[in-house]
Write a structure and sequence with these properties.
- By secondary structure, the protein is of the alpha/beta class.
- The chain has a single domain, classed as 4-Layer Sandwich (Purple Acid Phosphatase, chain A, domain 2), CATH 3.60.21.10.
- The protein is built from seven helices and 16 strands.
- The protein has a six-stranded mixed beta sheet with strand order 1-16-2-3-4-5, covered by helices on one side. Strands 6-7-8-9-15-14 form a six-stranded mixed beta sheet.
- It starts with a helix and ends with a strand.
């Protein structure tokens, strides 16, 4: 009997760890932020990997709606290369775009689906998503502005550090203004900081897939075992990077001590 109880508890634990969304909250203060952006709420989604959270993504959308976001940012891998089916993505985007403007950058899985990315790209544009491809655009609030930038994932060409550096060099920013960067890859924080971005949103690491309590993630792509950049808030010089643990899974279909995550970031203008 004990092994049956143990088995039931294990199944319940694995279901909980992979399907019950956790909310993570951060504040980012800056003297560069205009007063209109004080208490500005950004919801950060990453690495959905085509996963479904309730009918028509109802559980995921309810969590986002409860935050009353001013902006939703998605940092890649909304789709999964092993299962190109846009139904779950479409359900999410159609409803989420009604909650707040959505800005999106690609991940390695968007690059891996090759010609099918054109289908996904067209659907995102159709619903009103702004896809940032090595560019910077204004974000307005009461006639005041900050800037949001985004870079294409290097897997569209290669995975070399130089590709990201070249992409960033193409984006002209005013470092006197507040600049947000969306990038799929968190491990490049030193490169981002060298361009003096104020706030970075990234994903890709899946929180290390299996998290060891009081230690952190076990493994992340491009970082190896016991990676440093898998979740949370990291500060380098004047740059703050916030990393999402993501929502779905890919090659390894199970997450342990690493629940699906929605990141909520509140900007604070320092008077």
């Amino acid at each position: 009997m004990l092994w049956i109880v143990f088995l039931i508890l294990m199944i319940a634990f694995i279901y909980f760890e992979n399907n019950v969304i956790q909310m993570s909250f951060f504040e980012v203060p800056s003297k560069k932020l205009p007063c209109s952006f004080d208490d500005y709420i950004i919801v950060h989604i990453s690495d959905l990997h085509n996963k479904r959270f309730g009918k028509n993504q109802s559980r995921l959308l309810k969590k986002i709606k409860n935050q009353s976001p001013d902006l939703i940012v998605i940092t890649g891998d909304i789709i999964d290369k092993r299962n190109f089916n846009t139904n779950n993505v479409t359900s999410f985007i159609k409803a989420a775009i009604k909650l707040a403007p959505i800005y999106f950058v690609t991940g390695n899985h968007e690059a891996s689906i090759k010609e099918n990315y054109k289908i996904l790209h067209e659907k995102l544009l159709l619903f009103g998503v702004k896809i940032l491809t090595d560019e910077s655009v204004e974000l307005a609030s009461n006639k005041e502005f900050i800037y949001i930038c985004g870079i294409n994932d290097p897997c569209f060409t290669s995975e070399k550090k130089e590709v990201i550096e070249n992409n960033l060099s193409e984006i002209k920013i005013d470092t006197e203004k507040f600049n947000i960067l969306l990038s799929h890859r968190p491990e490049m924080i030193r490169v981002y900081a060298s361009y003096e971005y104020d706030l970075i949103f990234a994903g890709h690491a899946h929180g290390g897939q299996f998290r060891i309590p009081f230690v952190g993630g076990l493994f992340a792509p491009n970082q190896g075992f016991f990676p440093k950049y898998t979740s949370g808030k990291h500060v380098l010089n004047q740059t703050v990077e916030i990393i999402s643990r993501g929502l779905g899974s890919s090659i390894i279909p199970i997450r342990i001590f690493n629940r699906p995550e929605i990141v909520v970031c509140k900007l604070k203008a320092i008077k």
